[in-house]
Amino acid sequence: MKKLLALLPMLSFSALLTAVQPALAQAPAANPALPNIKILATGGTIAGAGVSSTQYAGYQAAVTPVDKLLAAVPELSKVANVTGEQIAQVASHNMTGDILLKLAQRVNVLLASKDVDGVVITHGTNTLEESAYFLNLVVKSSKPVVMVGAMRPGTSMSADGPMNIFRSVITAGSKDAHGRGVMVVMNDQIIGARDLHKTDTMTVDTFKAPVFGYLGFVVDGKTHFYKPAARKHTTATEFDVTGLTSLPKVDIVLGYEDDSRTAIDALVAAGAKGIVHAGAGTASVSAAVQPGILDAVARKVAVVRSPRASLGIITRNMEFDDDKFGTISGDTLNPPKARILLMLALTKTSDPKEIQRMFDMY
Ligand code: SIN
Question: How far is residue 218's CA from residue 171's CA, in Å, rounded to a whole number?
Answer without folding.
Answer: 7
